[in-house]
């Protein structure tokens, strides 16, 4: 690989590689951030340690280990010498495909596959040249392994060579190892962040302590879009430990010496709110209005063939409507942001997925240049998209409070703040009409989708919203492999606007499109009197990867053999983030009509794999996340207020409801896909399809509830 | 008041009704104990009080005075408790935020029921939420820790 730009940095005693490779992602570049700052990805030190700097945030998905594997593969260092750190926020750490420093879209591993390997290879080359200089031999005559440069029976450790290597200029190009020589890539590796995370030493944003730091809670409007009209601080200020109470753009901040005082102070606030138009919001009425809208075509997302004519000549028609509710991400670590404004700098400690955006937003509020906004990234206690906020609201709020308070402040959200704080997976309705030919295969498909756009009105609008259609609202439907064989098809979209802030939620649009598509396809299979697996295979005749995944999951689940007494199986396959996942759920229904999921057999084709142990964990976790939505999760609004507030009424999956999830990773030469999200979406339709087999009730609303 | 945290007695200045969680996190600096819900729904704040698992987010600090409080930091000096060892072997953690609470609940379970059935594991761990969905490996790790302890006896 040829490098367009490279730099050598000297930092302390050690070798630091910095460079920029040409952007080569398959996704559109979202931002043309200039690469002015140097990049630093790996540091080899005289004490033999090899420090890997992560351009993305570790939020559970395992990149702390995966990206280190990429460097270690090429560097030939000893795995036990690897240390990992989050990189700071700097343009140099821009996402290789998106041009903006961020973590999301299940993109980290595939987008960094070349860059991190290249860094490792460059560092290795420099160490080899340093050794060659010492021995006065040609670099090509030397070998490397386990952190040493080797010449016959002699060897020099990387630590011994680090200082000499740092004086060399980096190679203009390096040769990456051929796949057959890989020692780490593709092997199951245990996580490098485990020791800290099992001893309580791992630091999350909420754990940050600074000298003189105070803790703040914010009283935010009880209704989306509400504003403070007046407030009385006297009772709040009387709470021991409360030091300051002040208005900030998002509400009233109570600044105290500790969390508990801030909480009591906030409880004691008396605030009058101008609730605004949000006070009329009612999710039940909203759903009814979406259903009405779904009867009329919206903005065209896909139009092929003459749907009206094809529909008129169909042998049979099937029509169905599916809906999904608002959902909170409910990361285990509630949002928090610590800010210190000092000496013309704005220092931020927060678990963010969106460094690039947050840095710019914080700079504006703090009144400093973006490069003077220093973002320290501790571990993220879950992300799922919640910590990638398009408006940087929790970071902006932290800067406002620190600025007003004049001391370093940690703003902490309570669970209630989180559940009621918006930024939800939006509510969606899908209405689908299919016209079938005499074999029961669809020849006409009319599909209307209704739901809030996540990206309209944001800086990303012009890149993602085309002709009024937000791609993230229709992904998984417009590109459904089932529809490629349907000669006449039309998918349209309504994007109603309301004050509830929408946000991406693990698997984004797929979280509803997969439910609609895979439920409807199942309905068509039953209408045609055909086995759901065989029917899908017929529709996917031109899609060998999909068929292979389906067959692998089905065979591991025992499809075609009788399930245990009282159970039934349902399946789904979905293609998202470049990865195909098929899932078969084995389900029963108890006397109280509660749906129980016992086993889930998954088959995953994500192309080249890096860490199979991590892939298995992500698939198991995504199934659990998807099951929370399939069986339990729903946020509702009455008079503008979110009715749920904490885990007692916004329920999520607990261990007794966790099925046994088996994961087959299908080796494939396909382009590498993502793994954090793709297994989330297929589980809801797989379960609904199984429930239909058991009960002959077709459940078309999430969460799934039997009547 | 005096609190005995991980074998060390400390003087803390806290109102009686302050939840033990905040006394531990904000006053004692044992931030391995996590805040997740504040109403004993998620288990992230689980600590041992005289060896029994309790949710520190709803326990007034005064109720813990004079009793032995163990947090994740004090479970073992070096991460060598069988539950921690099993956790590492099974590669349980993901984001890690709930894991202190999961491990404390699992350790308390095994102290009481050395060889728990699958149902006993599910029942004992039902109060600990993990949004990353590590539940399957949590079960495996508890079984592993249980067999490690058996082998040691």
What is the CATH topology of the largest domain in chain B? Ubiquitin-like (UB roll)
So, CATH architecture of the largest domain in chain B? Roll
- Can you say what the CATH homologous superfamily of the largest domain in chain A is? Aldehyde oxidase/xanthine dehydrogenase, molybdopterin binding domain
Largest sheet of chain B, in brief, is:
5 strands, mixed
| Largest sheet, strands/sense/barrel of chain A | 7 strands, mixed
Order of helices and strands of chain B: EEHEEHEHHHH
- The side-by-side strand order for the widest beta sheet of chain B comes to 2-1-5-3-4
Share in helix of chain B: 25-40%
| % residues in beta strands of chain A | 15-25%
Q: Write down the domain tally of chain B.
A: 2
Q: Specify the structural class of chain B.
A: alpha+beta
Shape of chain B: globular
SS content category of chain A: alpha+beta
Q: What is the CATH topology assignment of the largest domain in chain A?
A: Aldehyde Oxidoreductase, domain 4
Radius of gyration of chain B: 15 Å
Number of strands of chain A: 30
Mean pLDDT of chain B: 97
Architecture overview:
The complex is a heterodimer of chains A (707) and B (153). Chain A has 707 residues and is α+β, with helices and mostly antiparallel strands. Chain A has three domains: 5-197, Aldehyde Oxidoreductase, domain 4 (2-Layer Sandwich), CATH 3.30.365.10; 205-276 and 335-412, Aldehyde Oxidoreductase, domain 4; 283-326 and 424-695, Aldehyde Oxidoreductase, domain 4. Chain A is built from 18 helices and 30 strands. In chain A, a hairpin with a 5-residue loop joins strand 3 and strand 4. The longest helix of chain A is centred in the first third of the chain and has 28 residues, at 108-135. The radius of gyration of chain A is 27 Å and the shape is globular. Chain A starts with a strand and ends in a 12-residue tail after the last helix. Chain B has 153 residues and is an alpha+beta fold. Chain B has two domains: 2-74, Roll (Ubiquitin-like (UB roll)), CATH 3.10.20; 82-152, Orthogonal Bundle (DNA polymerase, domain 1), CATH 1.10.150. In chain B, strands 2-1-5-3-4 form a five-stranded mixed beta sheet, covered by helices on one side. In chain B, helix 3 (82-90) crosses helix 6. The longest helix of chain B is centred in the last third of the chain and has 18 residues, at 135-152. Chain B is globular, with a radius of gyration of 15 Å. The mean pLDDT of chain B is 97. The interface between A and B is large, with 62 and 59 residues.
């Amino acid at each position: 690989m040829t490098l367009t730009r490279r730099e050598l940095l000297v930092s302390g005693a050690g070798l630091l590689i910095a460079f920029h490779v040409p952007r080569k992602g398959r996704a559109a570049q979202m931002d043309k951030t200039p690469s002015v700052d140097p990049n630093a990805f790996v540091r080899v030190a005289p004490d033999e340690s090899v420090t890997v700097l992560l351009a993305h945030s570790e939020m559970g998905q395992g990149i702390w280990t995966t990206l280190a594997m990429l460097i270690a593969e090429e560097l030939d260092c000893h795995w036990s010498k690897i240390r990992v750190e989050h990189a700071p926020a700097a343009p140099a750490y821009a996402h290789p495909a998106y041009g903006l420093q961020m973590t999301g879209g299940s993109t980290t591993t595939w987008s960094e596959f070349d860059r991190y390997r290249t860094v490792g290879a460059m560092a290795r080359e420099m160490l080899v040249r340093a050794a060659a200089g010492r021995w006065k031999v040609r670099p090509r005559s030397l070998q490397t392994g386990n952190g040493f440069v080797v010449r016959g029976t002699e060897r020099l450790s990387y630590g011994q060579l680090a200082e000499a290597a740092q004086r060399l200029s980096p190679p203009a190009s390096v040769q990456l190892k051929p796949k057959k020589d890989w020692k780490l890539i593709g092997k199951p590796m245990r996580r490098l962040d485990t020791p800290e995370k099992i001893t309580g030493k791992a630091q999350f944003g909420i754990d940050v302590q600074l000298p003189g730091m105070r803790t703040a809670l914010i009283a935010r409007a009880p209704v989306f879009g509400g504003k403070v009209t007046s407030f009385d601080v006297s009772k709040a200020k009387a709470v021991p430990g409360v030091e300051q109470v002040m208005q900030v753009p998002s509400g009233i901040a109570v600044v105290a010496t500790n969390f508990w005082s801030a909480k009591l102070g906030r409880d004691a606030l008396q605030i009058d709110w101008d609730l605004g138009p949000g006070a009329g919001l009612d999710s039940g009425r909203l759903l009814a209005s979406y259903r009405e809208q779904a009867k009329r075509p919206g903005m065209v997302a896909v139009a092929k063939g003459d749907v009206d004519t094809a529909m008129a000549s169909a042998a049979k028609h099937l029509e169905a409507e599916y809906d999904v509710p608002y959902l909170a991400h409910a990361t285990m670590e509630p949002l928090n942001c610590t800010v210190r404004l000092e000496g013309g700098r704005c220092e931020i400690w927060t678990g963010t997925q969106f460094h690039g955006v947050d840095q710019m937003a914080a700079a504006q509020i703090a009144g400093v240049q973006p490069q003077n906004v220093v973002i320290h990234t501790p571990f993220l206690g879950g992300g799922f998209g919640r910590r990638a906020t398009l408006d940087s609201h929790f970071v902006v709020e932290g800067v406002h409070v620190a600025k007003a308070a004049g001391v370093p402040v940690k703003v902490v959200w309570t669970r209630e703040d989180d559940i009621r704080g918006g930024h939800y997976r939006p509510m969606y309705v899908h209405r689908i009409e299919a016209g079938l030919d005499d074999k029961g295969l669809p020849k006409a498909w009319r599909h209307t989708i209704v739901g809030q756009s996540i990206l309209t009105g944001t800086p990303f609008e012009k890149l993602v919203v085309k002709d009024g259609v937000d791609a993230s609202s229709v992904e998984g439907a417009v590109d459904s492999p089932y529809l490629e064989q349907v000669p006449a098809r039309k998918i349209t979209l309504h994007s109603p606007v309301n004050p509830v802030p929408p946000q991406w939620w693990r698997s984004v649009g797929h979280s509803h499109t997969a439910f609609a598509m895979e439920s409807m396809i199942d309905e068509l299979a039953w209408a045609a009197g055909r086995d759901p697996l065989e029917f899908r295979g017929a529709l996917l005749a031109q899609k060998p990867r999909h068929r292979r995944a389906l067959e692998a999951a089905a065979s591991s689940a025992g499809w075609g053999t009788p399930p245990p007494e009282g159970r039934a199986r349902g399946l789904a396959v979905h293609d998202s983030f470049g990865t195909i996942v098929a899932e078969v759920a084995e389900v029963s229904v108890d006397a109280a009509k509660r749906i129980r999921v016992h086993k889930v057999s998954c088959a995953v084709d994500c192309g080249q794999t890096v860490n199979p142990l991590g892939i298995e964990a992500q698939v198991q976790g995504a199934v659990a996340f998807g099951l929370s939505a399939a069986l339990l999760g729903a946020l509702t609004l009455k008079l503008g207020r979110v009715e749920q507030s904490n885990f007692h009424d916004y329920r999520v999956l607990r261990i007794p409801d966790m099925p046994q999830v088996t994961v087959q990773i299908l080796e494939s030469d396909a382009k590498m896909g993502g793994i954090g999200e793709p297994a989330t979406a297929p589980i809801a339709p797989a379960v609904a399809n199984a429930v239909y087999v058991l009960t002959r009730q077709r459940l078309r609303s999430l969460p799934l509830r039997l009547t | 008041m005096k609190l005995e945290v991980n074998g060390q007695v400390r003087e803390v200045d806290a109102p009686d009704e302050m939840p033990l969680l905040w006394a531990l996190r904000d006053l004692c600096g044992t931030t391995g104990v996590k805040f997740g819900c504040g109403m004993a729904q998620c288990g992230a704040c689980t600590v041992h009080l005289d060896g029994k698992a309790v949710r520190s987010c709803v326990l007034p600090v005064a109720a813990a005075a004079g009793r032995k409080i163990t947090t994740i930091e004090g479970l073992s000096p070096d991460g060598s408790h069988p539950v921690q060892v099993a956790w590492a072997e099974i590669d349980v953690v993901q984001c890690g935020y709930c894991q202190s609470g999961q491990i404390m609940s699992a350790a308390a379970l095994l102290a009481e029921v050395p060889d728990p059935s699958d149902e006993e594991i599910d029942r004992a761990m039902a109060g600990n939420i993990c949004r990353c969905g590590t539940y399957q490996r949590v079960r495996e790790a508890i079984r592993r820790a249980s067999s490690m302890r058996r082998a040691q006896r």
